[in-house]
Design goal:
- The structure holds 2 protein chains of 2 kinds.
- Chain A is mainly alpha-helical.
- Chain A has 13 helices and 2 strands.
- A two-stranded antiparallel sheet of chain A has the order 1-2.
- The longest helix of chain A has 17 residues.
- The two termini of chain A are 46 Å apart.
- The N terminus of chain A is likely disordered.
- By secondary structure, chain B is mainly β.
- Chain B is built from 6 helices and 38 strands.
- The longest helix of chain B is centred in the N-terminal third of the chain and has 14 residues.
- Chain B is globular and about 105 Å long.
- Classes of the chains: A mainly alpha, B mainly beta.
- At the A-B interface, α1, α7, α8, β1 and α10 of A face α1, α2, β8, β12 and β13 of B.
Chain lengths: 321, 900
Amino acid sequence: MMLRGATLLAVLLLGAWSGASRAEEAVPGTDRSLKGDAVCTHCHDETEAKPVLSIYKTPHGVKADERTPGCQSCHGASAAHVKNPEGASTRPLVDINFGVRGAAAARLQAETCLGCHTGGQREHWAGSEHERRDVPCTSCHVIHAGQDRVMNRVTQQEACFACHKTQRAQIHRISAHPLAVGEMGCSDCHNPHGSIGPVLMAKNSINETCYTCHAERRGPFLWSHQPVQEDCTTCHTPHGSNNPALLKVRTPWLCQQCHTSDHSGPMNSGANLPGGNATTVNGLLPLANQSPRSQLNARNCLSCHSMVHGSNHPAGARFSK
Amino acid sequence: MTAEIFSMTTNANKKVRRRAVLLTQCVLLGTAFAWRADAAEPASGEQATRELTQPTSELEVGVGDVTQGSYKFGEYNGLQHEGAFPILNFDLSGGGLYNSDSLERWSARGADLGIDTRQLDVDYAQQGKFRIDLGYDQLRHNISDTYQTPYSGAGTDLLLLPSGWLKPRVPQVNPNNLNDRALSPITGLASAVTTSGQVAPPNATQRAAVNAIINADVPAFHNYNLYTNRYRWNAGLAVNLSRHWQFTAGVRQERRDGTQPLGAISSGVQENSVILPVPIDTVTEQYDAGLRYASSRATFDIGYYGSIFHNNVKSITWNDPADSTQTPSMSSAPSNQFHQLNIAGGYSFTPGTRLTVAGSYGRSTQNEAFLSDASLPLGLPATSADALIISTALDVKLTARPTRALNLGAEYRFDDQDNRTSVGRFVFYDANMQPGPNPSAFNAALGLAPGTLRSNVNIFENRPHSRRLNQADLNADYAVAAGHNVALGYRWQGIQRHCHDTWITCENAATSNESTVRGEWRANWLEQLSTRVAYAYSTRAVDYNPNAWLALVPMANVVPGAPVVGATTSVYGYLTQSGLTGWGPAAGFPATPLTGNAAIFSPNNNIVPQSLYGSRDNVSELPGMRRFDMADRRRHKLRSSLDWQASERLSLQAEGEFNKDDYQHSEYGLLQSQISALHLEGSYVFNDNFELPVFYSHEDLRSSIAGDGFGSNTGAAFVGRPGNTLVAGGCYATVLEKNHNGKIDPCLRWFTDMRERADTFGLTLARNNLSGGRLSLAGDVVGTLARTHISVRGGSYANNPFALANAPPLAPGVPAVFFIPAVDLPPVTTRILEIRLRAQFALSRASQLNLLAAYQRLKSSDFAYDGMQFGTGTEQLPTNEQPYSYSTAVFGISYVHRFF
């Protein structure tokens, strides 16, 4: 394993050094001042259907901050677009177009943004799920707007659900996190720029992410419930469910996926409900004698084993104290 | 009002259609929808430029009304009560102009200030130098407005029954045992089978007893609304120390209060339980601080994260409804802490080649004092768990682009959760259980006087689970042609599990290895058409140990003494010698009596008696049971998508996904699960002012579970009295045959297939520039239909209620035992319809009027609620909760003013 890993690393490094490079300095021939912007805003002014000037409301537009870009810092010098040669049927696009029509490769778009926005939340962008699938920054971020939609958890979902349609449907289920009402955003749990955790978790693991709001489940407990300690999504589906408490499968069958001992073993069917054939013994048992199976009815297992995430009581080995 | 988002976006890589986003809340979020007032008074060029470039502030005030209160409707949106509510939102921004020398920027935002889900955020920055932000967030979670309880003190840690409370019992059934069906006059006063085999109504004394119970107890039940509040404060600071260095710090405090339902066991013998309204009173503090370096090639991050959780509710105490003089107690979530150091760094050798390394070290601790009560005959081995988990993680990732068409990636991940919590021995009786009549077989081994502990005692040791993950990923992405990419990937994941200091391995799967291969093809056929197909196959192999349960019961390694006679080995010794699990041999009643250790540890070929390993309940699992999260598994994942910009006006999308998990070596537990989904979406743009996006999603989730309701092998040949020997249905014709095969009866094997289907549809209509450009209308509809079907195959046995010792013998041919086949459960269905209509009318360039009309309806049916009503449960105190249902409309009118 180690030898193969070292060999692979050597191959990658060799490949890397032989790869093409791109200038890291500011785009030559660009001017980030207002005078430089005027090359563009001469045409893309306040009458533009898309409010490009709104960028000046945002941190990108604060000219007193010498870190901020000008139009050409991101879109390139775009000489052809500016000059619009005679005879061209349509004006050539800018060098780096963040739109859709004739959009630059996602990687090029990302490199433009990462030229300034490197590190921090984007530390793990390279090789991340979104990066590998060519999702450019502008798939989610809206730069030429007074407020970037993804910076607000209410409007953030609009960006995510453009692709994540299963989750869009799930947040409308009867049991869900408060996403549909805007009290949570996708970025409360996920870092879409990349993460060392699975499924772009904001923290290093699924459980660490869940514990930022649900610290009461963290323990460590005297009596820990192993699937809980390993991965909350063993039992829960965090985007929405037709089952209570965001469970993947409702109890008692969820519990019976792992437990067969004692009273977790017997079958639970409709015959064990109030009035069912097992409850009434095919109608022979009078009403006073009938006893629907408590492991099936109401809150079933959780009526007693309510400390299912772990118990700290000396007698709590069965998660009931 | 709360913000509800409905997104009708197309694929991210296609032309972005204008979103129709309907907000019931804040009109102040400028990007969410266009400010309509610009049509009211056309602006001069200078004015228009100023409005586009200068910080903008908005204030919204108004009033709304909810037509019908419902906790479920208002679960998280603050609109749980019927009646009027204020609308108050603001979004203020200020600071220097973009073309000034000022770096000052500030903003203050407030949303939903008139209701319980209010938010407030303030930030101030000297851009490029520092930034401070403060925030407040409040969230109310409404749980139930139909819950009932007889307990007073709801919301405190002491829950008391009224002084006149009488133990619910149905004397004509059993004069002593708790029986909550007594609370209903229908079930409490119904006829019952007497010991002589007659069906008789309750006599006068019994009727009087039940009536007294009803009169004493039922009036005590009262509605108590269950909800929790969360109050969250946060503050943050970011300082740019230099061009490359930044320091950040933040603190967040979250306080929760309220009441939520929690099951509590009153008696372990009869499995009596109550659903208590328990208080929530917690504080969670989170801290972070970090130092960050970033340059064009190199990045470095070092940071601290700390989380301290305080639970001010240490325990819950309540009256036992079976004996209100008794007050059992249970613990609550212990206060705990987590502190973590994170370090990450990256270096770009070239723009296409980057190495990233990240590591973390964390400590999770918990030292809450143990509760002690009468269930612990030997007291406590320690005062607290002194629990500690050390978590360390390392991630190394190298990505490279050796050619323009080829991208490579390699990643290694290490994640270790080292649980160093001490192992202790805890001796206890189950909840409210009296020590049994027979002595434990381990008094002598524990150095105790004979009879000190009884045979129904639990002698357990805790199992601090540790887990170590090693994972390696290789990825390659190659552009085979313009617009066509093929990606291949491989992952290996190895997990090792163990417990420190347990007397034997505690893990069902000490080692598991999983390999995944994946392939993907992404194609842009034309600028207007793109497709994607991806497939991944995983196989996980585990060396499963079905006897890991032994780690819980240390007495399994001790030879049982008196009153057990003749044992020459321990349970563990017997299982090792015989190769059996705790379930014992797969055999029926022995033809010849067993002798020696077999007779002791597998009496009549039955399961190992739990008292022989110091447990009141059977702990071992069926052979063939595999806990699915660590069982052998084959996994298939298929994804596909199609994105087509059919014309300038019409865009279409389709996506499908299919996941299947097959636990190929599992005979019991989860055998198989499958998820499939189909998503269809389209958007038609009639013109710049009118578009119609629609979507439909279908999700289908299936799982199959197997189990066995096995019984015991006995030699009993009749039920009640000789002659009652027939069995109707099932696998055996006589009681003797059935009992001889009680453990291995194939008719007791059961299968449950669950299928959940959910359909969600939605559409949005947005029409702008009406009425001379002053009016815009938007509406959206979202509907969800989800249904869960649970089908069960198998059956169970039930004795004929008239096959009693003192009753006349059953007539010839009348069965003494019935095999009752399984019946499917009633489907669980949920229907949700959400309709929102919004109008915005521009009064002037700086003001507009917003009108909202929203309607939401939920109908659900869930058989679980049937068992919460009076008269349905024997061992569970009813709560009379009702399935969620509401039909609610919300109206609102608000005025919005914008200023610069």
